[in-house]
Specification:
Layout (H helix, E strand, L loop, with lengths): L5 E4 L2 E6 L2 E6 L10 H12 L9 E6 L10 H6 L5 H17 L4 E5 L2 E3 L1 H8 L2 E4 L4 E3 L13 H9 L1 H10 L3 E2 H6 L5 E2 L2 H16 L3 H15 L3 H15 L3 H12 L8
Parallel strand pairs: 3-4, 4-5, 5-7, 6-8, 7-10
Antiparallel strand pairs: 1-2, 2-3, 8-9
Helix pairs in contact: 1-3, 3-4, 3-10, 5-6, 5-10
């Protein structure tokens, strides 16, 4: 891929210009929910193309009114069964790739960042949002627990009490409150969001590569040094819950737009 090409790969729109690799989740008909193939493609991209020498910054965004609403429950319910541990390993690979990428990662959030979509946004080094954006650990609403590292990413930013409110009650946190709580970098007017993210990306792309890399590494080590433990706990718990009757009921209720009737 050259500086003038753009490519669509498994629900992703990818382009590179001036050292900035822009990765847009392009599944607007599903509010950019990720199925297993698009999650694998995102992991491949972040572990491969994003680490090449001509990439100095990565920008993550969503197409059409949402950032990412998590896992695609319609795809999961209609397709062949996938081992829960494979699902978890695929999601964990993406989060790990964002955190360990030498280049800084920016998230541009417009609309919903829910479930693993919230994890993607919060794993970024700098997260910018429109006032309409919100962050939602929706897992408990379908009988699951937080994953994608969010059981660490959120409390590391906002503290245990606020994280417990988000995770246990499954209530959305609007962008303004998310910024006030220290969860995201900045809230910008909708008309200014893309231009501001582009300007920050350009500043970073023109900056000292090695100094930025070592700074990112140091900040991540200082604040998220137990991320592997968190991912392991989430994998164990979620692998159990993904096979549970409560998850089946929660997913069915969400797809039917009704309240779930949990039994356990």
């Amino acid at each position: 891929m050259t500086d003038v090409e753009a490519e669509r790969v498994e629900g992703l729109l990818v382009d590179l210009a001036d050292g900035i690799l822009r990765v847009t989740i392009a599944r607007p008909d599903r509010m950019n929910a990720l199925d297993i193939d698009s999650m694998r493609a995102l992991g491949d991209l972040l572990e491969g193309r994003a680490r090449e020498r001509d990439v100095r910054v990565v920008v993550l965004a969503g197409e059409g009114g949402a950032f990412c609403t998590g896992a695609d429950l319609i795809a999961a319910s209609s397709g062949p069964g996938t081992d829960p541990r494979v699902v978890m390993d695929t999601a964990n690979r993406v989060i790990r790739a964002i955190l360990t990428l030498p280049s800084p990662v920016l998230a541009r959030v417009d609309g919903a960042a829910a479930g693993v979509g919230a994890s993607l946004a919060l794993a970024a080094d700098l997260t910018y949002a429109a006032p309409s954006a919100y962050f939602l650990l929706a897992f408990v609403n379908v009988g699951l627990m937080p994953d994608g590292g969010s059981s660490l990413l959120v409390p590391a930013a906002v503290g245990r009490a606020r994280a417990a409110e988000m995770a246990l009650l499954g209530e959305r946190l609007g962008a303004v409150d998310a910024h006030a709580a220290g969860l995201i970098t900045r809230v910008l007017p909708p008309d200014d969001l893309a231009a501001h993210v582009d300007a920050v990306a350009a500043t970073l792309a023109a900056g000292p590569r090695r100094a930025i890399e070592l700074t990112k590494r140091s900040l991540t080590a200082a604040t998220l040094d137990r991320v592997e433990e968190a991912l392991a706990r989430e994998t164990e718990g979620q692998a159990e819950l993904l096979g549970s009757a409560d998850f089946r009921e929660g997913a069915a209720a969400m797809l039917a737009r009704r309240r779930p009737r949990f039994g356990s």
